[in-house]
Amino acid sequence: MNENDNRIDALVGDWMTVKDAAAALNVSPNRIKQFIRDHRLVGLKRGGELRIPAAFISGGDVLKGLPGTLTVLADCGFTEEEALDWLFTPDETLPGAPIDALAQNRGTEVRRRAQAMAL
Description:
Elements (H helix, E strand, L loop, with lengths): L2 H10 L2 E3 H8 L3 H9 L6 E3 L2 E5 L3 E2 L2 E2 L3 H10 L4 H9 L9 H6 L3 H12 L1
Antiparallel strand pairs: 1-3, 2-3, 4-5
Helix pairs in contact: 1-5, 2-3, 4-7
């Protein structure tokens, strides 16, 4: 693991395996991989296995506003690592990290900030 991997791991905290995410969402592991390809989720290899941040799943569903935010970040040219870094890095003006704002149903503000980065 490199320094960037360590930073992302420290920011994200808890990770779920594809199998665990599939169980939490009541879908197949292949569906989770499709969600990753479609920018509904982000997955990174950790310990030789694809994992998803646990914060992305809440109440048996993908966190509201996350898929749209991930699409905006991908359209802005963010890599998966950069997207995770941005989502989990605290921002005093929100306050908290963008992922926290999504969890508090403030997705419009998060996507507005993400879109502004593309300009």
